[in-house]
Amino acid sequence: MQGHDEQSLLTRLPRLRRYARALAGNRDDADDLVQDTLERAWTKSALWGGVADMRAWLFSIMHNLHVDGLRRPRVATVDLDDDTPEIPVAAAQGERLAVLDLQAALDQLPVEQKEIILLVALEDMAYADIAKTLGIPIGTVMSRLSRGRERLRALMEGRIEPVRLKVVRMKAER
Amino acid sequence: MNPSSPITEADLHAWVDGHLAAERAREVEAYLAARPDEAQRVASWRTQKQELRALFDPVQDEPMPARLLRAARPRTPWYLQRVAAGIAIALVGGALGWGLRGGLQDRASQLAQQVPAAGMVQASGSAFAQRAAIAHAVYSPDPRRPVEVDAAHEDQLVAWLSKRMGAPMKPPHLQPLGYALEGGRLLPGGKGPVAQFMYRDDAGGKLTLYVSDEVVDSGTSAAGGAASNKDTAFRFVQEGAVNVFYWIDGPFGYALSAEADRAELARVSAEVYRQLAGTPR
Asked: Which of B7, B87, B135, B242 has its CA at 20 to 30 Å from residue A7's CA atom?
């Protein structure tokens, strides 16, 4: 039933949005990602009958769109060199500091680790379902989860340097 | 699982995530109790999880942007969007509203007979209906190639026509009325493309739906408000053997053509209304 499926998308919307926000890091990109995911889902709605796990299917679409999006950056970026001063991080207080730190640390994770950590943390998704969603073997899920969690821990404890930032240089400049 | 098997990294993660059977979980707990460093490491994973939830759960409670709500709904087929506008106007006038409440299909048929005073719109509208009737007459008898893209490739048809027409073009499903979608084609209009969807009933009778954005070009402008709303009235014309039920709204004109009688065309319209009423908003 069309109505049922539509309902199903509507009820999943808040969670798709939560995951996208964590994945994309900011509201606009995240909502774009959700919108693209929904639109892709509708264009493939003829397949819904054969979809056993709608959640995994939707997150799989989002994963593909996100990874595709990362492959084509909107502006050219170049690595900062060692002489580039660190971007100052605004100080925050109390609870908020930890929260910002987590967000910043999350952004330092490779996307393939971040996705798995988020599917586990936010969606409580079983490892086997994550493997299905991302199209990778479950052993890979486990190793990425493990590396991701350790990396996140190390980042938050300040034991490892963040990945070198990238700076955007506009062509028109100078 | 073998109870004597060594605790692996995967076990530790599964324990944090609550995926272990009770017995194995107890073994992991015993393992961690004897290894404070490991216990601390595992505890930090758990904290990460909790903090991630604390950080992102509130997103779920944020007001949902309208664009996402729209995207979660099925793309309202263009013909329903038009009819929706038409019904909204008709409800104000109290005409179609009665038909909807009572589910009286003959109201739709009466509606079809209402001829609004619309001047140029009327003229361009009937010209439009005439073109639709001609297109129907030209293409519907062709048993071999009635359509360019058949219904088996509906996705392609929708994508193609939507792209060429510059607006979502999804054919209505009229199967419950006994009309199976055969497919569609793109036709040349006066200035640009025109879309035609073709349906076939069991007896081989054809029904076509013709969509053009040229009606407005020759008639109204996007005046907005009540002025453009007038365009949504439903009209009926006869072009030779072909009967046409049509309406104009916004940028598009829509025409249903068949050699069936007016009541039958009204019945199809009533089904469209019914589908619209069943569309959650």
From this structure: B87
- The nearest CA of chain B is from the CA of A41 a distance in Å of 9
Is residue B80 predicted with pLDDT exceeding 60? Answer: no
Exposed (0-12), middle (13-18) or buried (19+): which is A87, by Cβ within 10 Å?
Answer: exposed
pLDDT (0 to 100) of residue B139 = 81
Q: Where are the alpha helices (DSSP H) in B140-261?
A: 154-165, 215-218, 225-229
Residues of chain B with Cβ-Cβ distance to A113 below 8 Å are: none
pLDDT number for residue B241:
80
Task: Specify the higher pLDDT residue, A75 or B43.
Answer: B43
CA distance B125 to chain A (A): 33
Q: Which residue of A has its CA nearest to B47?
A: A153
- DSSP assignment letter at B209: E
Q: Quick one: what percent of chain B has pLDDT higher than 90? A: 20
Chain A residues with CB inside 8 Å of B19's CB?
126-127
Q: What is the pTM (predicted TM-score) of this model?
A: 0.50
Pairwise pLDDT comparison (A76 vs B166), residue with the higher score = B166
Where would I find the H helices in A72-164?
94-107, 111-123, 127-134, 138-156
**Are A1-72 and A75-174 in the same CATH fold?**
no
Q: Do B74 and A126 touch (CB under 8 A)?
A: no
Domain made up of A75-174: CATH architecture: Orthogonal Bundle (1.10)
Q: Give kind and range of the element (H or E) at residue B66.
A: helix B66-72
pLDDT in tens, A26-65: 898 899 999 999 988 888 887 787 788 889 999 999 999 9
Partners of residue A146 in chain B, C-beta under 8 Å:
9-10, 13
Inter-chain residue contact A149 with B54, CB threshold 8 Å: no
Mean pLDDT of B42-62: 94
Tell me if B48 and A102 make a contact (CB, 8 A cut-off): yes
Domain borders along chain A are 1-72, 75-174
Q: What is the pLDDT of residue B36?
A: 94
> CB–CB of A6 and B74 under 8 A?
yes
The residues spanned by each domain of chain B are 9-60, 70-277
Distance of alpha carbon A37 from alpha carbon A50, whole angstroms: 18
What CATH code would you report for A1-72?
Answer: 1.10.1740
B72: nearest CB among A38, A145, A146: A38
Inform me whether the pLDDT recorded for B256 exceeds 50. Answer: yes
CATH 3.40.350.10 matches B70-277 = no
Contact B52 A3 (CB under 8 A): no
